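User: I want to check something. If I give you two sequences, will you return the structure for each one separately, not as a complex?

Assistant: Yes, each is folded on its own. Here is the first sequence with its structure:
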Amino acid sequence: MPSATTTTATPTARATTPVRRSREPAPGLFLTLLAVCSAVTAANIYLAAPLLPLMARDFGSAPSAIAWIASVAQLGYAVGLLFFAPLGDSANRRRLVAGLTLVTALALGASAAAPGAAALAVAMFVASAATVIPQLLVPLVAERAPAERRARHVAAVIAGLFTGIVGARVLGGLAGQAFGWRWVFAGAAVLTLALGLATALVLPSRRRREGPLFAGLVALPSVLRGSPELWRACVRQAGMFGAWSALWTSLALLLTGPEYGLSTATAGLFGLFGLTASAVAPLAGGLVDRFGAARVVRSAYLIAAVSVPLFWLGGHVLGALFAAAIAVHAALVASHVANQTLALTATSTPATANTAYVVAGFAGGAAASALAGAAFSHFGWGGVCAVAGVWLVLGWGLTSLRR
């Protein structure tokens, strides 16, 4: 049966290739468009973090009291990945991306008009659940890339994704200070609509597999159990992303608090250190192609372990905070490129495997962000650093015990 499927699929692909090529831009432009779309859509998940002080002032509460909104966005993204990302193995990608783009834009518009924290949290949850477009694009890039350059092609989209995360903090903080946080969400809705629909137009328009639409979701547990490499990638990235999320989502509270007393716009500029991620991604991709994913992940964990005490010292010394921000972003993106490349090649269902991988990462990030907000309220910045350290220990320790 597998051989019959292969022989029938090949002529079909050849017959339809001229049609798809006429609708697609050149390969380099295609990859660039996907990277830019990933940047814009990924930014939506992190818009709330740099705007927490402005939201708190508008809603009449303390910033630490609404810090949970940032974790709600990450949790929404994890839920959206669980339900929508597996569809990349079967659904019409063009229609799926277009539909999710419309839902995301509408939810971002509702966020801009939210009358209170509860309404904002619901709108952010829906927007984040629908903005899973980057994780529908990454498997497509991995499928199209030559085997010897697969990690580098994946890294290009990941670089765009992290550029969006950095842009959410930097531009979100600046725009929020200048125009108000509501206009930031309104602008994000417009950008998401434009880039999402433009990307949908160049994607393949046919279903990839026949069968139940949500077969990938049903198969998730068996796919995860059947691949130790995928399981290891999921747990290690959950630990790494959780540590990063705990530190990064709480950073605005430290910088705008009594220790430093920075404005929201100035604190947002701190996110420029996150551009380390965009610079490291292509380098990490080359290292993965050359030396393998395991070595890159191990090195990334060592760098992240060094960044945690630097962040703790950065609670009082600004220079240490600079160094820590560079180190943790380098560690995160190197680990992500390596682990995601491994996840995409570990099974015969890359979109389903990628769903398991990214859901694990963002579930770890959401849990760590929620704990970090509580830790900051009760123990200050040192409590946040402790949460990050625990997440790294769990991520590496659990995968080292199970072979």
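And separately, the second sequence with its own structure:
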Amino acid sequence: MSNALSNPVIESEEHRALRAAVAALAKRYGREYFATVVAEGRHTDELWQEAAKAGYLGVNLPEEYGGGGAGITELSLVLEELGAAGCPLLMLVVSPAICGTVIARFGTEEQKRTWLPGLADGSRKMAFGITEPDAGSNSHRITTTARKDGGDWVLDGRKIFVSGVDIADATLIVGRTEDARTGKLKPCLFIVPRETPGFGRSSVPMELAAPEKQFELTLDDVRLPADALVGEEDAGLLQLFAGLNPERIMTAAFALGMGRYALARAVDYARTRQVWKEPIGAHQALAHPLAQCHIELELAALMMRKAALLYDAGDDMAAGEAANMAKYAAAEAAVHTVDQAVHTLGGNGLTREYGLASLVTAARVARIAPVSREMILNFVSHQSLGLPKSY
């Protein structure tokens, strides 16, 4: 099945080579490896380490700190191709894309030297905590607070649905500090090492079949040194969205990879499954929906590429709009494609042998996280169309 983005007019020779190399690596692991890891309660350590050795995990991070010196464009290609082979690495979204980007852009020299080489070579991981039980990911309602106590910071609060805390060396926590001039709370980012006293975690049981576990975090008088603060105390939302735009782009890549994997399985089945004279793929009732899914995935991929290019060019405002649109489009395409793929296989689509049924739940994640499709529609209606807010 061809991918229009492999056209040299749209994608450079270097990007096509990166896609091919990652696809070859991922093919050696594939969905069976991924399913085995999930069933055994393990993590995708072997794939993570091999991808790290090849330089894929830190392709977006600065060269002077051990990264590849490229951007979110390249990292999104890595995740998409891993997903297209059935073995996506969710921590790519969190560790190098969100945390690595924020530290590279706003961290102190010491923070960069401490964290970026390890994030780039895969030897260290970092989780990201923004969502709260009573605030969702609404940064204006976050109740996790940070107060100064002498030369330290003290954090109190709760977080929910934080991926991979058990395998992360630290978590980048979104808290709020009080503005001394106005008394208003504003978002700030703190690096909290895993074993910091007062930093507790408990697993959240999920129906989702994934190697990465979800956690609820409690921060009870968590004392941090002054250098745990990333960037300037006054930067606020600027720093936060420097990480959230890559998160949306990478979520689009995650969804696209999943959609491509499901579509490839369905097309292969439709070509060969025969219950009448011709293979079932000859019937438009099955062929046309699969063609529609292919179109939707291609359109979403183009928007993801636009968002990544804008972000890497430093146009944060335009990238914010495009990243939200890309995440929305890719999520919708993935959900539609997975549903159609399962339907194409009929009863076989629900068996473990074909490995599609578990994607029904997984595909929904992209519609919900890191921000719901309804909030994206709010963003577009307000920011792009200039319509009034209802809240």
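Because they were folded independently, the notes below concern the second chain alone. The two ends are 45 Å apart (CA to CA). The mean pLDDT is 93.
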